[in-house]
Amino acid sequence: MTTTSERAAGSRVRQASHHVSQSVFDGSRLRVVLLVDVNDGAQQEFLEAYEQLCNQVASVPGHVSDQLCQSIENPSQWLITSEWESAPPFLAWVNSEDHVQMVRPLHNCVRDTRSLRFHVVRETGGPADGPDAAQRRLQAAPRIGDGVIRHALTFTVKPGSEDVVAKILAEYASPEPKVDDSTRLCRTSLYMHGNRVVRAVEVRGDLLAALRHVARQPEVRAVEEAINPYLEQDRDLNDPESARVFFTRAALPAVHHVSAGNHDERAEPAERHALYYPARPECGMRLAELLAHHDEAAADDPRNPVLRSTIFQRDDVVVRLVDMRGALEDADPARILGLSDPARTAELTTLLDDAADASADADPARLLELARMEFVTDRRAPDA
Questions:
Q1: Are 147 and 24 in contact (CB under 8 A)?
Q2: Does the pLDDT value for residue 1 go beyond 60?
Q3: Rounded to whole angstroms, how far apart are CA atoms 51 and 63?
Q4: How far apart, in whole angstroms, are the C-alpha atoms of residue 309 and residue 340?
Q5: Do residues 167 and 334 make contact, with C-beta atoms less than 8 angstroms apart?
Q6: pTM tops 0.85, yes or no
């Protein structure tokens, strides 16, 4: 049997930066695991829905293979695994409207689902010098995280309702931070850019358990009901399918997180800001990747005022959450925006929409003002 070390030696190996604890841009293959609990008696309906979905996903760029497995202990429990060339094509598909429509038949016959996504770091079996060895992309070392899971939601409200919505979102009572013995809410940050709302959360433990915990809290439920009349996309939180589709479309996953190093928050509190980068159609992923490369390179620069940066991306929505040293007004706009590298700046500006592109060429300070999101609220749990 070929060992993992031999396999890595014969593969394309990338050295992960110690500053980066999370990234979808390392080129590694992706393994997606979907755990499914099927409604009693709906196994055949589920199987037929899967076969239909399987035929559709086979033509999606970046898809390699998938498997469907049924539990030998409980016929209601199923496992779907799929392999992708890398994370970006999977995220482009799973966050698309096509995916929302494709999975509707599946959700009609299941009680619960849980999706897990993994980069392939090592593997055994098969010749290390086989014909596909040059295509394998493995990390030289595992990423070392900080124990925090980052996720965001984004949605738009009806034009003219921005002030009302901001007031509702700023004044709600914080939910209980403890989810269970292993999961805790750490921080929630809300920002707006025009009529777009972005809610970023930080969780220790199980993200799905935390999101379900929050959704059940009466304080949060009241806020969600209060903003319902102002949403551009209709939803009914009492209808599971309506709520599922809304939050599926609202998901804004974190695609990159970098930390410049140790920072004593008590001695020097960091300022948190959110920046919105309006991308041209179908350019959001590439724009996020360029920003990720900038943040990774800037992490070693002592002049860099950004202590931590998290990039969230879905379709053409790219949001960068930055914790920085000092005031935003005192910083170099180009460094804050990720425009300090001339070569990457030239490409990045071509990925922005027309208004942002013109502002970047004319004055980075003007682009910073356009990108800067309006602060709504930023809440930390005690001892987070």
A1: no
A2: no
A3: 16
A4: 15
A5: no
A6: yes
